[in-house]
Amino acid sequence: MTNLAQDLQALEAHILQIIKSPEWIAIIAAGIYSPEITLGDALQAAREAVAAHDLYLEISFHCSKQYSEFNAQ
Known about the structure:
Elements: H1 3-20, H2 22-29, H3 39-72
Helix pairs in contact: 1-3
């Protein structure tokens, strides 16, 4: 796993930790903070970034494998 993938997964876990924290729940319940972009949006973005990164690695692997096989002929 690359550093980027690890960083994205750590970011996802950290956002989940914040969302589940009693402090965050209290802030939202009190109506103190009403963001235009929520932590849920940030969590979704982190998940999409992880998925895009995984897809990029998969495509890169398959393309490099096919390129190597083509050059070997």
